[in-house]
Structure formats: structure tokens, C-alpha cells
Amino acid sequence: MTVDAEVIVVGGGPGGSAAAREIATLGKRVMLLDRERFPRDKPCGGGLSVKSVALLPFDISHVVEHIATGVIVGDPSAGSATQEAGEPMLFLTQRCRLDAFLLDQARAAGVDVREGQRVTRVLRREDGVFEVTVNLDDVSTGDQDSDIVYTSYVVVGADGANGVVGRALGFAPPAEHGVALEGNLPCPDGIPDWLRGRVLVSFAMLAGGYGWLFPKGDHVNVGVGGLEDAGPELRDELARFCTLFGWDIERLEDVRGHRLPLWGPGRRVASGGAALVGDAAGLVEALLGEGMYSALASAHLLAPVVAQYLDGAVGDLEAYQRALDRELAPSLQRAARIAAILHAWPRPLLRIVVGSQRIWWLMARVMDSGSGTHSGVVTMWLADALLRPLAWIARRRGPTSGRA
Ligand SMILES: Cc1cc2nc3c(=O)[nH]c(=O)nc-3n(C[C@H](O)[C@H](O)[C@H](O)COP(=O)(O)OP(=O)(O)OC[C@H]3O[C@@H](n4cnc5c(N)ncnc54)[C@H](O)[C@@H]3O)c2cc1C
């Protein structure tokens, strides 16, 4: 039987391009389909953590516009403290540049990248082969608005928060979503001194929410996020957040929002020869909304399993589900618990975190536990023993506003 590609990856964001690149590097024939043409933008703060960059086997410095070595926790209304790491903590990029570069790396690894191809339907045939129907929007070839069907042995859904692959193949949607709104404040005279080399994160916002300032090359990305039901309040919240720094929301350019599918325990992300990665798998971390690490990490865990499946060494992609539950889920669960606790008692807890260098670094270490080091096993065990009951109580209390 001939197929168009051994693997079809739907979506060319960080999750899709990483999955495609890593599977192709293992010698498999991979096609990647994205409805957009790159460079394309995506609502995102563009903050790449150190552990995310560690998953990329190439230099990304030419798409990094700013490096934060410190973080300001709080804001002028709630009080703030600056924690300096003295080494890079967050790499600030723009998604239009980062994603195009990551996709180029996939191309260089041999992936057949097809842009402007919107997947509308995915079907698993009786013989196990997948049929992926795309709607072409290729004006140059005159194929506008025509459909084409590609076939493959494996399908990877990397099509983001509103992806079609998961839905088409019967995967349950994530139980909980966050929502965030962001825009860019132009800084023609440069990034303000107090923000240079730093990011700001504030939890003194609406219940369950947070705000951020991420400096880039010639602008500051300003955003607010919260749980999904906070959606209608987000624009007012963004305006209020801007005011705290003396800025008018009208100065923000490209204001746009998007959903964040939050990680929750027990979600299935693999079935037979199909698997989901990144936002399509619902892997966004609940405290700061970091999703690119999960996208890259899930792709990294999936690639060897796909190769084994194609080689006939395993009968399905179940080992990916197990790897995700073992390697990624514990840190996502920790973040979800910290988020529940912080949002239940934001003011007293932030006073502690902001006031104590030691507690801050302990929390940062617990949050960073996805990096794969085993040195912190005891710390993680203790953290889990403490966080589990506290999060249980916090969830019963529910989120409250951290506003002074
Ligand atoms: C406002 C906001 C701020 C954020 N800030 C950060 C941050 O600073 N740091 C961080 O780590 N995370 C952040 N996140 C989360 C992060 O943006 C996502 O977790 C990340 O983009 C997930 O990558 P992905 O590859 O899974 O999906 P995506 O990046 O969403 O990529 C999905 C791709 O699939 C394509 N696609 C969708 N449907 C189809 C279809 N039917 N056919 C073909 N192609 C399709 C899309 O065009 C897109 O290219 C933020 C999210 C939001 C909303």
C-alpha cells in the first residue's frame, strides 16, 4: 500500500514543527500541513523558558529580541519585588519570527511542509490508514477552494487550541480553558530602563488572573489572562493593567486574544496511530500560561514512539501517553496546584513570595521541574506532599481577586 507520507502532522506551530522535525530526523517520511502561510503571527507573549530552549538542538539567538535575567513580581498598585537570577530566565521572541524559523528547521530536516492547506476532516479507515482532507487556498496554482485528500499511517494533531484532529478522531476536549488578551506597546525610544533585562508578572488582577509585561526589540508585549469565564472582563482588565504603568490601552497595537487549553489529569492524547501534542493535547501550564515548553516537550516524547510504531516494534502510540503522564504531567500538576493556591489567597501569599528571596527561588525550582534533572527529587516529593492538600482546600475556596 502506498501512502502520501508515513506521518502527517497537522499544524506548524512549535509543537507541530518540532514533532515533524524530530520524526523526520529519525528517518521517517513526514508531511506537515498548516492552514496559514508563514511568517504568521499567533496571540502569545512569546516568552520561551530556558527549559524550552534546551529542547531545541540549534541556536535561536537571531529570533530572540530580549533576554530577561530577572523578574518583577507585582505591580505599582500591589507592591513589587525584583528577583534577579543573574543568568537568562526567559528568552523573548515574536511568534511570527520564531515559528517561521522553527518551521524552516523542520524543512531542513526533510519535512514536506505545505502551507495554506486547511485540514477540514480526518478519518481513520478500516485498514488503519488515515485520510486527511485539506481545503487548498493556493491562489498561485489556481487551486483555490478545492479539496485534496492525503493518506498516512500516523496522524499528529498539532493544530492548537481549536484543533480539528482531536475532534475528528474522538479525543475528549480539555476540561478547562484559560483565556488571554495581549497587545504591543511601541517603544520608539527603547524599552524603559526599569524593564530592561526583566519581565513583570502580576497576580494582583481579576480572580484567577494574571498580567505580564514582556519587553521585545522595539516594543513591550502587555497582556492579561484568566480563566475562561473572565473573557468578557479581559479588555477592561487590560486597560486597567496599562493604567498602572501610566499607559493608555489605545496605544497598544495588534490587541488580540486566544484560548489556552489548560492541562488536566487523565486526558487521553494517543489512540492507535494518532496522537495530539501541544495545545491540541491541552497541555498549557496553569500558573503562567506557558504552553510552548509543553508543545516542544510533548513532540520530543512522541517522536521516538512514532518511529517504533512505523518500524512495527509497537502496535500503537500508547507509549507516548505513558511518557507524557510520567515525564510532563507531574510538573503541570504542580503548576496547577500552585495556581489554585495562589489564586485562592493571592494577597497574603504574594506578600510572602515577593518578600522572601528563599521562597521565591524554591517556587521557581518547583516550577522548573520539567527540565528533566533528577537532583530535585526530594524537593519535588516534599513540594507535592505540601501542595496536594493545600490545593484541595484552595479549590474549595475558589479564586479571589488579588487587587488591593
Ligand atoms: C495571549 C497568550 C499569551 C501566551 N504567552 C505565552 C508565552 O509567553 N510563553 C509560552 O510558552 N506560551 C504562551 N502562550 C501559550 C502558547 O501560545 C501555546 O501554548 C503554543 O502556541 C502552543 O503551540 P502549538 O504548536 O501546540 O499550537 P499553535 O502555536 O497554536 O499552532 C497551531 C498551528 O496549527 C495551525 N492550524 C490550526 N488549525 C488548522 C487546520 N484546521 N488545518 C491546518 N492547520 C491548522 C495553525 O495555523 C497554527 O499554525 C500564550 C497563549 C496566549 C493565548
Structural write-up:
- The structure is a single chain.
- The chain has three domains: 7-43 and 96-173 and 266-327, FAD/NAD(P)-binding domain, CATH 3.50.50.60; 64-94 and 175-262, D-Amino Acid Oxidase, subunit A, domain 2 (D-Amino Acid Oxidase, Chain A, domain 2, 2-Layer Sandwich), CATH 3.30.9; 329-397, no CATH class.
- Helix 1 links the parallel strand 1 and strand 2 (30-33).
- Helix 1 (14-25) runs parallel beside helix 6 (292-310) and helix 8 (346-355) crosses helix 9 (357-367).
- The protein is globular, with a radius of gyration of 21 Å.
- The protein is 33% helix and 26% strand.
- The chain is built from ten helices and 19 strands.
- The longest helix has 27 residues, at 318-344.
- The chain has a seven-stranded mixed beta sheet, sandwiched between helices. A six-stranded mixed beta sheet has the order 8-2-1-12-19-18. It has a three-stranded antiparallel beta sheet with strand order 3-7-4.
- It has helices spanning 14-25, 50-53, 95-108, 165-168, 234-244, 292-310, 318-344, 346-355, 357-367, 377-397; strands at residues 7-10, 30-33, 47-49, 64-68, 70-75, 79-84, 90-93, 112-114, 117-124, 130-136, 147-152, 154-157, 176-186, 198-202, 210-215, 219-227, 253-262, 270-271, 274-276.
- With 404 residues, it is of the alpha/beta class.
Properties at a glance:
single chain, 404 residues, alpha/beta, FAD/NAD(P)-binding domain, D-Amino Acid Oxidase, Chain A, domain 2, 3 domains, 7-stranded mixed β-sheet, 6-stranded mixed β-sheet, binds flavin-adenine dinucleotide
